[in-house]
Design a protein that fits this description.
The protein is α/β, with parallel strands linked by helices. It is 29% helix and 29% strand. It has a nine-stranded mixed sheet with strand order 3-4-2-1-5-6-7-11-8, sandwiched between helices. The longest helix is centred in the middle third of the chain and has 18 residues. The termini are far apart.
C-alpha cells in the first residue's frame, strides 16, 4: 500500500478509491466520483448499500458481508464504511494497490466532535490504518434547503491536488468541510483545529401511536463557533476548513507525568 499521497502531477496515474457513509445511491457520492475522475482515470467506488451515517469506526464481525457489483469498478457492500474500505483494499481491488482514498462528499458538515461519530471520517481512518492516504470531504447544508454540491465539486479538485503535492504524515488523515455558500461566494481556505460541539444534548422523549415511549437524539451544543482557528468558525464564516487529524490519540503532554506518577 502507498504510505504517502501521490504527488499532484502523479494523480492522473493514481488509483483512487471513493467511498462514503450516505450509501451507494447518495448524491454526494456521485459528486465525489466526478471530482475523482477529474484527477485520475483509475477510479473505484466501494460504498455501503444503505445510509450508515453515525456508524463511526464500526466493523461488522457477527455476520457475513455481501458484495454487490453495481457496474464496472463500482460495488456496494451491506456493511459499514469501515467494512467498505477494508474489503475494497483486501478483496475487491485485486490488481494493484490503492494510492488515495476519498470519502464523501457527506451531506452535512463533519466538524468538532462529529469526527468521532462520522462514518465518513471512519472510512478515511480505516484507509489510514492501511497506510493509504485518505481525505474526508463534507458539504455543510441547512435542513430543508438545497445542498450546494457545486461548492464541493468546484473547489475540491484543486485542494486535493495541492494536498497531494505537499503530502502528509502516514498517521494523518485530512478532513475537509465546505461552507454552505455558493461556490463563487467561498471566501477562501483555512487550515483549522478541531472545534467543540457535542451531539445529543437535547433528548426528545415522546409517546408513539401505539402508546410506547421513545427517545429521539437531537440538538447540538456549539462551543467553539466563535473561536477563530477552529473548523466550526471557518465554515460559519464562509471558508473551506482543512483539518489534519492524527490517528494517535495519546496525550503526549500527560504521558511522562503519568508514567512517573504511576510507575
Amino acid at each position: 500500500m502507498a504510505e504517502t499521497p501521490p504527488p499532484s502531477d502523479a494523480l492522473k496515474r493514481a488509483r483512487i478509491l471513493v467511498t462514503n457513509d450516505d450509501g451507494i445511491n447518495a448524491p454526494g457520492l456521485r459528486v465525489l466520483e466526478r471530482i475523482a475522475r477529474t484527477l485520475s482515470n483509475d477510479v473505484w467506488v466501494v460504498a455501503p448499500e444503505t445510509n450508515q451515517s453515525g456508524a463511526s469506526h464500526s466493523l461488522t464481525m457477527h455476520r457475513p458481508l455481501r458484495i454487490r457489483k453495481v457496474s464496472r469498478r463500482r460495488f456496494a457492500i451491506d456493511g459499514t464504511p469501515t467494512d467498505c474500505v477494508l474489503l475494497a483494499l483486501q478483496t475487491v481491488i485485486k490488481n494493484g494497490p490503492v494510492d488515495l482514498v476519498l470519502s464523501g462528499v457527506n451531506q452535512g458538515a463533519n466538524l468538532g466532535e462529529d469526527v468521532t461519530y462520522s462514518g465518513t471520517i471512519a472510512a478515511a481512518m480505516e484507509a489510514t490504518l492501511f497506510n493509504v492516504p485518505a481525505i474526508a470531504l463534507s458539504q455543510s447544508c441547512r435542513n430543508g434547503q438545497p445542498v450546494k454540491w457545486a461548492t464541493a465539486e468546484q473547489h475540491a479538485p484543486g485542494i486535493i491536488s495541492r494536498l497531494c503535492s505537499e503530502q502528509w504524515h502516514k498517521d494523518l488523515l485530512i478532513n475537509i468541510n465546505f461552507p454552505d455558500s455558493a461556490s463563487e461566494a467561498v471566501k477562501g481556505m483555512q487550515v483549522t483545529a478541531q472545534g467543540k460541539r457535542k451531539l445529543g444534548d437535547e433528548l426528545l422523549e415522546r409517546i408513539d401511536p401505539r402508546g410506547e415511549p421513545y427517545v429521539w437524539i437531537g440538538g447540538l451544543r456549539v462551543e467553539d463557533a466563535f473561536q477563530e482557528g477552529t473548523d466550526l468558525h471557518a465554515v460559519a464564516e464562509g471558508y473551506i476548513s482543512v483539518t489534519p487529524i492524527h490517528m494517535d490519540m495519546t496525550h503526549r503532554a500527560s504521558f511522562e507525568r503519568l508514567r512517573v506518577a504511576l510507575g
